[in-house]
Amino acid sequence: MDLKALVQRFDGRARLLVHALHSGAAGVSNAQTVFNKQRRSDPDYTLTLETLCQREASVYEHALVLKPLVCLFSEGFKRNLLCFLHLIHPGLPKDRVLYLLQCLTQDDVENQWTCALIKQLQRDIEGTRKGSLLTSNCTGKLKCLCERFRNANAKGRWASCFEGLGAEGKETKVPVYSQKKRKSDNMDHDGDAQEDHQSKRVKMDFCPGEEERLTEEEEPKMRTSQLDQSAASVSQARSDALGSSKNLPDHMKAAVPVIKELLDTESAWDESSGSALKVFHECDPNEVEVLCSMLCLSEASDQSLPQFCSWLLELSPDLSHSTACAVITHLLLPKILSLAEPASRCLVTAVISLCSRYPRPTCQALIEPVLQKGQTGSAQAELLCNLVVNCLEPHHRLLVFRNVLAILGVSWDEGVLSVIHALLDSKLERSEKDFSLFTDQLCSQSPHFSKSMKFAKMLLSVLTKYQSHVNPARHHTLSSCLSFNETFLKKSLQAALKRISL
After folding, report:
1. CB contact at 8 A, 297 and 264
2. Region (Disordered) spans which residues (predicted)?
């Protein structure tokens, strides 16, 4: 049955969603846009799944059989549909979604990714973590790989682990990647780094459809292998820096051990020591990257940061935008991304001092990358809120806000909500376009935060502090957001929305 005949089974609004889900890789985002517009025009509109579950006659192996309508669609449509349901299922009846998943499992699902999506959605709806997302075939291959990774001294290193492992058990030859050999004083070190890099590329090409979550027994083993990969990446980066250092002028090379010793020993800096930092004024964008890598700024202790930043701020004239971005990226970003507890006083002092002098580079090289990770923990959120409230001018806060709106491919988390709330409390002077984009984002994110108090408080700030921005279209959008809310603030939110005069 062709697509045109399948689409005729649906009503007008549902047809738009079906066509959107059939639009390839962009199907999920297109369907979400269509669904949000339908909800804005009719806040009570909900997705009907009964049509997808209806039985349809089809020919299978020269026989006429009855199958659910959803099973007659392409694999790409099924994957997009499952991803779309994963986003909006909190606002749909659980029994209907589970029945649809049951209909999908009646089909002979050969695609392992589709099987994993079905199992994951069942887990999320039922609130359980029973069983594994992996098929028995995938589990067997991963166990085999874990056993091979145990022998770290095996000849050929990791590349040999993938020899003989191919589709349907056939032997596959490991591809050889030719790389331009870098000039370095330590040839053996370069060889090891290149070999690690090659084996990682082979690993990326192997079984792309089977990148699944491991079972509890296999997670520690794979975590060890990931640490080995990370160490190899660091080794490769240092090797690259050493190779590129030959292009640095002699006086820059001479400044590296002076600055590094002061960072490592945490000794007192005097004027002669601080003068070594003047090399940052003489670097072009490529040279400053090499210089920061050679200094290993990310490995500097928190105790050495305030004095180092203090001497950086003493430099005159100020650092260029690109140099300031490079220093902030190497010096502060890795430390903040790795925070598992509140930042130390020394780290906070260093961040605030650089942000106060270089606010735009801080927004670009620190705040934006942390938010884009999509895993902003409480420690990161606390530090970013501190910067937003105490260090940034209104136009820089607006820049951060627009960066948050631009992160379309990453779901918000509780940390991002804290940053947005801090921005809203600062009374942003937003344009109508900014507010329209923001309400669209609220509508798309609201199913994920139906029970989140932070999200509810943020909505309340929008409804009480930005009433003048709410027009009839945005009123419908905000009403749609409230329909997902399940906190005790829902009545207060509905009352605040009713008080807005249109």
Report:
1. no
2. 173-247
